[in-house]
Amino acid sequence: MRTLDHADFLDMRRFPALDGLRAFAAVIVIMFHFAGPKYLWLSGWTGVYVFFVLSGFLITTLLLREQDRTGRVSLKAFYLRRVFRILPPYLVILGGIVIFVYLRGEFRFRFMPEVLPYYLTFFNEFLPGVYPTAPDNFFSGSWTLGIEEKFYLFWPFLLVMAGAVGLAAAWRKLAFAVGALAVMIALVPITSGWLMHGSQKTLYISTIHYSILLIGCVLAVVMHHRRTYALVKPLTHPLAAIPVVAVFAVLHVNMEDLWWDTENNLALFLVYGVVVALLLVVLIAPGPMRWVLSTRPMRFVGERSYSLYLLQQPVHFIVVLTIPSLAQNRLITALVVVLVGLAIADLIHRWVEQPAINYGKRLIARRRAKRAEAAQAMDETQPIPVTKVATPA
Q: Which residues cross the membrane (predicted)?
């Protein structure tokens, strides 16, 4: 048994265990919503914060590796990849909900004319504050997408600008990421306050969520550069998984109680985000935890977790309509929602998500090929410099 070398980390093109972690996060969110009070110990609502740390880490890792590979980061290519990754499933599921609500004659009752502008412009997180008494429209769980889309919009741009002004060195990039994290933490008292006191009205628009995303970004910068990688390398030893997983497990199952015992103190989210970041290091390195979360069933659910997460509310409504006895939230209700949601998510993954991602890749490849042809044509039209040879007198 040994630690994971930095070169081996850079050679990894996929982190399969992180798909398994996505599966875990999506399923516990559904358990929180529909399994009933007996399963509150699962602290399922923390699943969204696992997603945030994952997103920050993976997006920043991809950007840093592209910069090393090509010498630059193509923001156009990045935004195209995000558009074709995020929008197609999102719009298909939202469109299905709109049609369903309209056919039931509940389009206005469920405030659809008012909420659709927010959903279509990814300001989802503002809806709980603007329409606190609006009836459920089966898409309110998408508030996390509003936060992630703003992160996708601004963070790559800021990271590229950091490189443009001389922040390319490892320690300087780390300072930039930590500085961004510090700014988001400093804005928490302004955007929401640290204590919710049982009211979550301002929680959705708090910069605490961007802080959690940036914890993942900081980890990505630390692991990308050889010098800073040494800070976390000891955690890549298989035996290090034992204390890290133990700390995560103890904290995770107590998050529900801690949340209320601390008067809903948002500092708890920061602690949880840091522990999840340490867990990512363990899951990337070889070991039993990586093997468990990399198994085919876990990867299957993880690869469909995005659609599964968005589908949970409309699927629950349909399940209850079909089987009224499942109207009471309990374990069987949550499991049926997971299974039905996963079946629909699989269809969306096969027929919408994957084709859209592949089309985006082809579009980016064509753009690169055209740029390469244009550059080659430009080189061919340049005059060949003639060196004058002095003739002897």
A: 21-41, 47-64, 84-103, 152-171, 178-197, 203-223, 235-254, 266-285, 306-326, 332-352
Structurally, the chain folds into a number of domains equal to 1
Give the residue carrying structure tokens 């306050």.
193
- Residue 333, both tokens: 């209700």
Q: 206-263, pLDDT tens digit by residue? A: 999 999 999 999 999 999 999 999 999 999 999 999 999 999 999 999 999 999 999 9
388 within a domain of the structure (yes/no): no
Residue 62 burial class via C-beta count within 10 angstroms: exposed 0-12, middle 13-18, buried 19 and up: middle
Return the C-alpha torsion angle 97, 100, 103, 104, nearest 10: -100
**Cα 40 to Cα 43: distance, rounded to the nearest angstrom:** 6
Q: Is residue 10 part of a domain?
A: yes
Range of the domain at 110: 6-378
**Rounded distance between C-alpha atoms, residue 303 and residue 265, angstroms:** 32
pLDDT tens, residue by residue, 119-132: 999 999 999 989 98
Q: Flag whether 155 is in a domain.
A: yes
d(CA 45, CA 256): 9
Cα distance between residue 78 and residue 91, in whole Å: 20
Crossing angle of helices 75-103 and 354-381, in 10° steps, is: 150
Kindly state the tokens that stand for 303: 């690869």
Residue 383 included in any domain: no
Burial class (CB in 10 A: 0-12, 13-18, 19+), 155: buried
